């Protein structure tokens, strides 16, 4: 085999280097044209085909963790898929119990991570307790009855009620309904009505 000259070696070496560069460029071009999917890294290239910068795209998604409390069968902390609604959280907690006021909660609202969902209980309707004077058959205290209270007793008019209060004040108080027998205008029927409505 004839010995290669220095010039021939240089030519062959240049050809080999050129082939290597072309092969490397072809491989880079093939990788850069691959289709991208979720979580795939994209490579941006400049006009010469050289890599300039890279970025990755990750598919968004996940769960939300919420605390369901109040009038539900199984209160607690639950993990639900992102985009779930309040109604999903309530159902996950076993649903509302009897007496729950679920209509007071916006069941269509979207859940947020860390949110607390409280289902209130139905509050029974309460009113102001009626005082004895506002209840027709409630006993009236003999020692503190007013003219207006005495006037509510059957057979006692405003004049007789005023006489009873005046007699009580003059006597220093009354210890029994029988003491009212001394007041003019109070007969047996009125005394019977007083016994049913007055208390010492």
Notes on the structure:
With 200 residues, the protein is of the alpha/beta class. Among the domains are: 63-119; 135-199, DNA polymerase, domain 1 (Orthogonal Bundle), CATH 1.10.150. The chain is 31% helix and 16% strand. The protein has five helices and seven strands; from the N terminus they run αββββαββαααβ. The protein has helices at 6-32, 86-92, 147-150, 158-171, 188-197; strands at 41-45, 51-56, 63-70, 76-81, 116-119, 140-141, 198-199. The strands form three sheets. The protein has a three-stranded mixed beta sheet with strand order 4-3-5, with helices on one face. Strands 1-2 form a two-stranded antiparallel sheet. β3 (63-70) and β4 form a beta hairpin. The protein is rod-shaped. It starts with 5 loop residues before the first helix and ends with a strand.
Strand-helix topology:
Blueprint: H1 6-32, E1 41-45, E2 51-56, E3 63-70, E4 76-81, H2 86-92, E5 116-119, E6 140-141, H3 147-150, H4 158-171, H5 188-197, E7 198-199
Parallel strand pairs: 3-5, 6-7
Antiparallel strand pairs: 1-2, 3-4
């Amino acid at each position: 085999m004839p010995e290669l000259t220095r010039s021939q070696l240089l030519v062959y070496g240049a050809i080999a280097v050129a082939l290597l560069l072309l092969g490397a460029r072809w491989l880079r071009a093939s990788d850069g044209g691959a289709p991208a999917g979720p979580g795939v890294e994209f490579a941006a290239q400049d006009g010469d085909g050289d890599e300039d910068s890279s970025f990755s795209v990750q598919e968004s998604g996940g769960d939300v963790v919420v605390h369901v409390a109040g009038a539900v069968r199984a209160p607690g902390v639950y993990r639900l898929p992102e985009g779930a609604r309040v109604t999903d959280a309530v159902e996950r907690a076993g649903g509302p119990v009897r007496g729950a006021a679920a209509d007071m909660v916006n069941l269509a609202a979207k859940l947020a991570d860390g949110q607390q969902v409280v289902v209130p209980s139905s509050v029974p309707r309460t009113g102001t307790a009626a005082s004895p004077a506002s209840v027709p058959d409630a006993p009236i205290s003999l020692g503190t009855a007013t003219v207006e209270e005495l006037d509510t007793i059957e057979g006692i008019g405003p004049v007789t009620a005023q006489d009873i209060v005046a007699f009580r004040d003059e006597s220093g108080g009354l210890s029994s309904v029988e003491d009212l027998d001394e007041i003019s205008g109070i007969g047996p029927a009125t005394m019977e009505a007083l016994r049913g409505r007055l208390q010492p």
